TrEMBL record:
InterPro entries for this protein: Kinesin-like_fam, Kinesin_motor_CS, Kinesin_motor_dom, Kinesin_motor_dom_sf, P-loop_NTPase
Nucleotide-binding among keywords: yes
Residue ranges with Low complexity bias: 22-34, 46-55
GO terms, molecular function: ATP binding; microtubule binding; microtubule motor activity
Family: Belongs to the TRAFAC class myosin-kinesin ATPase superfamily. Kinesin family. KIN-7 subfamily.
Cellular component GO terms, alphabetical: microtubule
Entries under Pfam families matching the protein: Kinesin (PF00225)
Binding site for ATP: G155, V156, T157, S158, S159, G160, K161, T162
Coiled coil: 396-483, 683-710, 759-786
Protein name per Swiss-Prot or TrEMBL: Kinesin-like protein
Extent of Polar residues compositional bias: 1-19, 35-45, 572-599
UniProt keyword list: ATP-binding, Coiled coil, Microtubule, Motor protein, Nucleotide-binding
Location of region: Disordered: 1-57, 569-626
Length: 864
């Protein structure tokens, strides 16, 4: 820790070299003088040669410590960032009231003896990237190592807080830079695996709202052993910088923003973006290892408003809430630095309650105070400087948070993956018992054959069940594995354990930046001043050059452009070789290959999977790197399609969802831009940007339509295959029935043959009989002819014989009946006799009519 003496001497040195700005008098405060001041203080570093000494210096100081090493262990890092005078301020003839005097001192123009020293002071032309490197990088590094971190921008309204924290496409702010850096650190730390979650909230009029979940309004702040937390806040696991940035952009849509006298897009709420980082050792021996758990809070405070601000109604109410919470923040900070204070009023505002753990010294804190040099805000700037000065004295003890218990999400996922893998192994072992069983069968076939047959059906169904369970397990392992991020670099030393020398620059992919506003501008500006404003942005010119260059390169194809970008960014190269773009080139042109090509293209167009994003490549690699056995995936593939149809449909749906999200986002940006355009109809770049966005929306909608068609086709194909399956089942059933029927038919045909034989035999017999009858007939007619008896006469004779016999018999009976005691019986007998006689007579009459040869048949003989 630097001593006060040391700091003092350093400040003295700065004072002696301090430069007096050109715009130091009322009369000279014109646009040109301002420009001169800005030019002279490029990158916040005043030229010592042009500095002039001051008499009776009276200055305030804070410890200036080594930025690279021990500093964050001792004090809050406090930096001050000047913004340039806005064209409006220039137009209004504002003067420079405060300026950056060297790298660490802010001095008052009118009273040069009033000066404050900080860890670093950034002049109006310093780029946000530089601010990040000095004021934020060590906090982000710490968070990735398990040390809590908080970075916040503090300042009056329109001083540049949002510009610093969020930025725009040309100059990404601390938040996107930190997110990007976090993923780069993962990439450079191959010996650990990470799980990143984000949440995003706002405190508006002392109410906590969840910006990632519009339903999460007025949330409660709770406290537990770990500190304060917001109950029910939505946390999203993030897989790439673009993914995280898209969430922020979605959250920004819900943030309360309004126009004030000072800023047309003034933040009316404090926002806290929290990145929760869990990491553990990667590899075999990670079981039982402690997990590093930390939170990186990136805070964009609403700006305090001066009493001069002519606000009314809602704005006034918002302003008073903002001022009250910032006042409480100030009180908390001064009490924290006053060793005698017994009570720290954290509970007096939601903001200080949520910052309690950071402010009370548990973790690294970086305070970036944004100020305007303008004389009209001189008093507010002075207050900001005093606040910053007080904050510098807060002592912190940054220590790693290690958790041994299983509470961390990463441990939970790791354990689940481990146990699922074990389960999978068991299943596999269960399945491979079949060949072993077969081996035994070979030894003693007779003994086990019966057993095998019995168990076969049972085993088959068990196998099917187990296959299903295996597939389910694999897909769960896959899903969980995807959430845990690991570096794709196999044997590189960890960046965390062995810090590399110069830091690598990881440039943003264009798609990642799409989530940032095109260019946040002071909407009070005139058109003619835009160029001036823009040119004040440190390396804007070179950025423009790069942009032009990139546009030129992109004309030669997206893949080439991406390759070039990867080469430029350094990091991408190691992963780009294995990226889907390369894969798609070598994939054969089968329907499956077409599919994967499409996926690769879609990855190019989708920010969260953008090729220029190292994490996206990283994620594609994760699947190959992890221990999920490849053969198991293959087992589930259908030979024709490569991937299961349902997976394919899921994949297409996922892509469709992603694209729809992008369209929604672009549409909302377009809406915002059209509002802006209606306010500033002459601004051509807005129209251009709107056109670009509409074109993109159109292209994406076309892609969505294509995806919808593909999904419909896939569903149809799967239905068809289902229908085919059903049809083949029906055919199989029908074939079985057919076989059965043809067997029956065969049996019946055999029966028929036998019957046919019997029939022909009978016919032969009949023919023989027929011949006999004919010959008998012949014989009979010959015989009758020889006796000259007509068959009819013989019948008549017989009938009359019978009739006389009947009459005789009747008479005898009557005589006998009188003698017989049993008259009834006799009568009955008579009746019976009558009946029989009548029958025979009738019979004979009939026969006579039918067959003249009846006489050949022996007539009945009746006993009396
Ligand atoms: N360092 C800078 N360089 C260039 N322009 C800047 C800089 N800082 C701020 N600006 C511009 O100043 C204007 C106001 O900035 P910004 O909205 O970030 O202020 P703020 O402090 O967040 O305001 P509020 O508290 O009202 O939300 C914006 O148009 C922004 O682009």
């Amino acid at each position: 820790m630097a001593t006060k003496q040391g700091s003092k001497s350093r400040i003295s040195g700065l004072i002696s070299n301090s430069k007096k700005p050109a715009a130091n008098s009322q009369s000279s405060s014109t646009a040109s003088s301002t420009k001169q001041f800005l030019e002279n203080s490029m990158d916040g570093q005043s030229s010592p040669a042009s500095s002039s000494a001051r008499s009776k210096p009276q200055y305030f100081y804070s410890e200036s410590v080594n930025l690279d090493t021990e500093r964050s262990k001792e004090n809050v890092t406090v930096t001050v960032r000047f913004r340039p005078l806005s064209p409006r301020e220039i137009r209004q003839g504002e003067e420079i009231a405060w300026y950056a005097d060297g790298e660490t001192v802010v001095r008052n123009e009118h009273n040069p003896s009033t000066a404050y020293a900080y860890d670093r002071v950034f002049g109006p032309t310093t780029t946000t990237r530089h601010v990040y490197d000095v004021a934020a990088q060590h906090v982000v590094n710490g968070a990735m190592e398990g040390i809590n971190g908080t970075i916040f921008a503090y300042g009056v309204t329109s001083s540049g807080k949002t510009h610093t924290m969020h930025g725009d496409q040309r100059s990404p702010g601390i938040i996107p830079l930190a997110v990007k850096d976090a993923f780069s650190i993962i990439q450079e730390t191959p010996n650990r695996e990470f799980l990143l979650r984000v949440s995003y909230l706002e405190i508006y009029n002392e109410v906590v709202n969840d910006l990632l979940n519009p339903a999460g309004q007025n949330l409660r702040i709770r406290e537990d052993a770990q500190g304060t937390f917001v109950e029910g806040i939505k946390e999203e696991v993030v897989l790439s910088p673009a993914h995280a940035l898209s969430l922020i952009a979605a959250g920004e849509e819900h943030r309360h923003v309004g126009s004030t006298n000072f800023n047309l897009l003034s933040s009316r709420s404090h926002t806290i973006f929290t990145l929760t980082v869990e990491s553990s050792l990667y590899g075999e021996n990670s079981e039982g290892e402690a997990v590093n758990l930390s939170q990186l809070s990136l805070i964009d405070l609403a700006g305090s408003e001066s009493s001069k601000a002519e606000t009314t109604g809602v704005r006034r109410k918002e302003g008073s809430y903002i001022n009250k919470s910032l006042l409480t923040l100030g009180t908390v900070i001064s009490k924290l630095t006053d060793g005698r204070a017994a009570h720290i009023p954290y509970r007096d505002s939601k903001l200080t309650r949520l910052l309690q753990s950071s402010l009370s010294g548990h973790g690294r804190v970086s305070l970036i105070c944004t100020v305007t040099p303008s004389s009209s805000s001189s008093e507010e700037t002075h207050n900001t400087l005093k606040f910053a000065h007080r904050a510098k004295h807060i002592e912190i003890q940054a220590a790693q948070n290690k958790i041994i218990d299983e509470k961390s999400l990463i441990k939970k996922y790791q354990n689940e993956i481990r146990s699922l893998k074990e389960e999978l192994e068991q299943l596999k072992r269960g399945i491979v018992t079949i060949p072993r069983l077969k081996d035994i069968v070979e030894d003693d076939i007779v003994l086990l054959k019966q057993k095998l047959e019995d168990g076969q059906v049972k085993l088959q169904s068990r196998l099917e069940q187990e296959e299903e369970a295996k597939a389910a397990l694999l897909s769960r392992i896959q899903r969980l594995t995807k959430l845990i991020l690991v570096s794709t670099k196999a044997s590189q030393p960890s960046r965390i354990s062995h810090r590399p020398g110069p830091r690598r620059r990881h440039s943003f992919g264009e798609e990642e930046l799409a989530y940032l506003p095109y260019k946040r501008q002071d909407l009070i500006l005139d058109d003619e001043n835009i160029d001036l404003y823009v040119s004040l942005e440190g390396n804007t010119e070179s950025a423009d050059e790069t942009l032009k260059e990139e546009k030129k390169t992109r004309k030669h194809g997206l893949l080439n452009w991406l390759k070039l970008r990867k080469r430029d960014s350094g990091l991408g190269m190691s992963t780009s070789d294995k990226s889907s773009g390369v894969k798609s080139n070598s994939t054969p042109s089968t329907p499956q290959a077409e599919n994967s090509n499409y996926y690769a293209e879609s990855r190019l167009s989708h920010p969260s999977l953008a090729e220029s994003s190292p994490s996206a490549d990283l994620l594609s690699e994760v699947r190959q790197d992890r221990e999920v056995p490849e053969d198991n995936f293959l087992e589930q593939e259908t030979p024709l399609n490569g991937i299961k149809t349902s997976d394919q449909i899921d994949l297409l749906r996922e892509q469709q969802k992603i694209l729809s999200g992008e369209v929604a986002l672009h549409s909302s940006i377009l809406k915002r831009l059209s509002e802006e355009a209606s306010r500033n109809p002459l601004k051509e770049h807005i129209q251009l940007e709107m056109k670009k966005l509409s074109d993109e929306i159109k292209v994406k909608n076309e892609q969505i339509a294509l995806l919808e068609k593909q999904i419909a086709d896939s569903i149809m194909a799967s239905h068809n295959s289902l229908a085919n399956l059903e049809a083949s089942q029906t055919i199989a059933e029908l074939t079985a029935q057919l076989n059965e029927k043809s067997f029956e038919l065969e049996v019946k045909a055999a029966d028929n043959c036998i019957i046919q034989d019997q029939l022909s035999q009978k016919i032969c017999e009949c023919e023989g009989l027929q011949e006999t009858i004919v010959s008998l007939k012949q014989q009979l007619s010959d015989a009758l002819e020889s006796k000259n008896i007509s068959p009819l006469a013989s019948y008549s004779q017989r009938i009359s014989e019978l009739k006389s016999f009947h009459a005789q018999h009747h008479m005898n009976k009557e005589t006998a009946a009188s003698k017989d005691r049993n008259e009834d019986l006799l009568l009955q007998a008579q009746h019976n006799f009558d009946h029989v006689m009548a029958f025979e007579v009738a019979f004979l009459i009939q026969v006579r009519e039918v067959n003249p040869y009846f006489s050949l048949i022996r007539p009945l003989r009746w006993k009396n």
